[in-house]
Amino acid sequence: MKKVGFFRSIQLKFIIIYILLLVIAVQVIGSYVARELEAELLDNFKEATNDRIDLLSYNVEQAFNKQRTDDPEEPTLQEEIQEITIDVDRTGAMIQVMNNQGRVLGTNDYTNTQIIGKKITEDTVQRAIKFNTSIDNTSLNVNTGERVLVRVEPVVDDNNNVQGVIYLETSLESVYGQLQKINEIFLKGSVIALIVSVLLGILVARAITKPILEMRQQAQTMARGDFSQKVEVYGTDEISQLAVTFNHLNDRLKHYMGQIENEQRKLESVLENMTDGVIATDSKGEITLINEAAGRLFNENPMHLLNKDLLALLELEERVEDIIQLQQSGTLVLDYSREEETHYVRANFSTLYDDSSEQKATGIITVLSDVTEEEKIEQERREFVSNVSHELRTPLTTLRSYLEALTDGAWEDPEIAPKFLEVIQNETERMIRMVNSLLQLSKIDSKEQPLMREVVDFPKFFHHIIDRFEMNVKDGNITFKRVIPDESYFVYIDKDKMTQVLDNIISNAVKYSPDGGRITCRVQKDIRQIIVSIQDKGIGIEYEKLDKIFDRFYRVDKARTRQLGGTGLGLAITRELVESHYGRIWANSKEGKGTTIHFTLPLNNKRRRQQ
C-alpha cells in the first residue's frame, strides 16, 4: 500500500480543522468588536458635533431674535451671523447658516465666501425649513470622496417659527482612521495567534495520529502474512483501547491463518492430482475455487475464471434460473461443440450448506469430466444405426410392396410381372451395393484392408480412367475435357483403390451433369504433391452443405440419388481412401453452376514408399 502523503493525511485534516475553528472564532470576535467600536466612535463623534451645533444654534437664535436699530454702527444680521459662524467652530467642519428663505447668511469656509447671499435649494435644507425638523445622516462628499456627517438644524423663535437653519458638514475620516489602526493591530495579533495555533495543531495532530499510523503499519504487515509484531499501547484512552483490541485481533488471525494454510495445502494437493475438473462457488454462483483440470476443459487460465458466474461459464443461464437448482438437475452432459471441434463435458453438482442451517446453501461444488470421445462414439453409433435403418427401410418397403402385389396375383399378368421383378432386382442390387460399401468402410476403419501400393504414372493412369467413361457415356451427351500435362507424375498408390476413388467422383459428375454437359478433368503439380480436379456443370451444391457431402449417407438431392441408384456412401469411401494415401479431399461449388472435387496425392519418393 502506498504511503499517504502529508497533504492527504489525517494530521493535515486535524490541523486544518483546528485552524478553521480558530479563524472562525477570530473573525466572529473581530467582527463584533469592530462593529461595536465603530458604533461607539461614531456616537462620540456625533455627540461632540451636537454640542457644537447646540452652541452655534443658541448664538444664531440670539442673533435672529435681536432687535435691530437704524444705527449705522450696529452690525447687520448677516455680519453678526458671519462673525458667529467663524468664531464658534475651528475644527475643520464646514458650517453654513441660512435664513428661512434658504439664503446663506454666513459660512466658516474662507474659500467659499461668495456663496453668502445665495439661495440653497438642497433637499435636506428645504425639508428642515418646511417641516421644522432636524436632519442627521452620513453621506459621501462628491468633491473630496470622503465620508462626511451632515447635520441640518432649524433655528426657531419663541413661537416655534423657523427663522433659519444651520447646515454642518464634517469629515468622518478621523473616526475611520482610528478604526483602521485598531483593525491593523487586531490583524497582527490574529496572525501571530494563527502561527502559534498551527504549531500547536501540528503537535496535537501528531500526538493523536501516531498510534493510528502504527496500527496502519501493523495492518499492512498483517496483510502480508506477518503476525509477529504488536502495536504499542500508550495509555488508557479510546485509541489505546483500540490498540489493545488490534493486538488481540492479530493473535486470533495468526491462529486461524495457520489452520487455514494447513487445510489449503491439503486441498491443493488433492485438486492438483485430480484428472477431473473441480469448481467451487459461493451462494451467488461466483467461482471461488477452480483447479487446473477445469481450466483445461474451457481452454482458460483458472485464475482468470475466479469470481465469474458459474452458470455463465457452463452456459446454463437459460436452463437454470438459480444456482441451487443445479443439484436438482442431476448429472448433465453439456455440449460445447463448435463448428471446428466437438466438445462434451459431464457435470455433477453438489450443494454446500451452512453448518448452522441445512436449509441455507452456501455454495455449489461442480465436478467436470471430459466425455468428448465417449459422446462422439455414441453419437456416431446412433447416427450410423439411424442412417442404416433408414437406408434399408426404403428398399425393403419397396420389395415388400411389390412382393405383396405379385402374391396377390400380379405375377400372372405378363405385362406387370416383368416390371415388378425388375424393380425387385434393382432394389436388391442397391441393398447389396450398400452392404458392400458398409463392409468396405468397416474394413477401412478397422485397418483390415491393406493397400497394395505401387509406383504409378498418374497422368497416364488418369487417361485410362477417362477413356473408359467416354466409352460408357450414351450417345456422347456428356463430353470430357482433359487438362492433363504430358509429363509424368509418379505417385505411390493402390491402383484398385484409386480407380474406385476416380470412379466415384466421375460417376457423380456424370449423374448430376445435364445433357450436353462437359466434365473437366485436371491434374497440376504442386511442390511435393499433385492436385487432381474433376469439374462438372451440374446442379451445384449450396455452400452450407459442402462440408457434409463426404459424410456417410449424406445426399445433396436424396430423391435423385436414390433414383440413380446411389447409396450415399460413395464420397465417404472416397475420402477414407484418399486419406489412407496421405492425401486431402475437398469440394468447391456454386449452386446452379456446377461442382469441382479436388484431392491431393503425394509425389513418389523413397520415404513415402517405406510408409
From TrEMBL:
<keyword id="KW-0547">Nucleotide-binding</keyword>
<dbReference type="InterPro" id="IPR003594">
    <property type="entry name" value="HATPase_dom"/>
</dbReference>
<dbReference type="GO" id="GO:0005524">
    <property type="term" value="F:ATP binding"/>
</dbReference>
<keyword id="KW-0597">Phosphoprotein</keyword>
<feature type="transmembrane region" description="Helical">
    <location>
        <begin position="185"/>
        <end position="208"/>
    </location>
</feature>
<dbReference type="InterPro" id="IPR004358">
    <property type="entry name" value="Sig_transdc_His_kin-like_C"/>
</dbReference>
<dbReference type="InterPro" id="IPR035965">
    <property type="entry name" value="PAS-like_dom_sf"/>
</dbReference>
<dbReference type="Pfam" id="PF23846">
    <property type="entry name" value="Cache_WalK"/>
</dbReference>
<dbReference type="Pfam" id="PF02518">
    <property type="entry name" value="HATPase_c"/>
</dbReference>
<dbReference type="GO" id="GO:0000155">
    <property type="term" value="F:phosphorelay sensor kinase activity"/>
</dbReference>
<dbReference type="InterPro" id="IPR057640">
    <property type="entry name" value="Cache_WalK"/>
</dbReference>
<dbReference type="InterPro" id="IPR005467">
    <property type="entry name" value="His_kinase_dom"/>
</dbReference>
<dbReference type="Pfam" id="PF00672">
    <property type="entry name" value="HAMP"/>
</dbReference>
<dbReference type="InterPro" id="IPR000014">
    <property type="entry name" value="PAS"/>
</dbReference>
<dbReference type="Pfam" id="PF00512">
    <property type="entry name" value="HisKA"/>
</dbReference>
<keyword id="KW-0812">Transmembrane</keyword>
<dbReference type="InterPro" id="IPR029151">
    <property type="entry name" value="Sensor-like_sf"/>
</dbReference>
<dbReference type="InterPro" id="IPR013767">
    <property type="entry name" value="PAS_fold"/>
</dbReference>
<dbReference type="InterPro" id="IPR036890">
    <property type="entry name" value="HATPase_C_sf"/>
</dbReference>
<dbReference type="GO" id="GO:0006355">
    <property type="term" value="P:regulation of DNA-templated transcription"/>
</dbReference>
<protein>
    <recommendedName>
        <fullName>histidine kinase</fullName>
        <ecNumber>2.7.13.3</ecNumber>
    </recommendedName>
</protein>
<dbReference type="InterPro" id="IPR036097">
    <property type="entry name" value="HisK_dim/P_sf"/>
</dbReference>
<dbReference type="InterPro" id="IPR003661">
    <property type="entry name" value="HisK_dim/P_dom"/>
</dbReference>
<feature type="domain" description="HAMP">
    <location>
        <begin position="206"/>
        <end position="258"/>
    </location>
</feature>
<dbReference type="Pfam" id="PF00989">
    <property type="entry name" value="PAS"/>
</dbReference>
<dbReference type="GO" id="GO:0016036">
    <property type="term" value="P:cellular response to phosphate starvation"/>
</dbReference>
<dbReference type="GO" id="GO:0004721">
    <property type="term" value="F:phosphoprotein phosphatase activity"/>
</dbReference>
<keyword id="KW-0472">Membrane</keyword>
<keyword id="KW-1133">Transmembrane helix</keyword>
<keyword id="KW-0175">Coiled coil</keyword>
<keyword id="KW-0902">Two-component regulatory system</keyword>
<feature type="transmembrane region" description="Helical">
    <location>
        <begin position="12"/>
        <end position="34"/>
    </location>
</feature>
<feature type="domain" description="PAS">
    <location>
        <begin position="263"/>
        <end position="316"/>
    </location>
</feature>
<dbReference type="InterPro" id="IPR050351">
    <property type="entry name" value="BphY/WalK/GraS-like"/>
</dbReference>
<dbReference type="InterPro" id="IPR003660">
    <property type="entry name" value="HAMP_dom"/>
</dbReference>
<dbReference type="GO" id="GO:0005886">
    <property type="term" value="C:plasma membrane"/>
</dbReference>
<dbReference type="InterPro" id="IPR049814">
    <property type="entry name" value="Resp_reg_WalK"/>
</dbReference>
<keyword id="KW-1003">Cell membrane</keyword>
<keyword id="KW-0418">Kinase</keyword>
<feature type="domain" description="Histidine kinase">
    <location>
        <begin position="387"/>
        <end position="605"/>
    </location>
</feature>
<keyword id="KW-0067">ATP-binding</keyword>
<keyword id="KW-0808">Transferase</keyword>
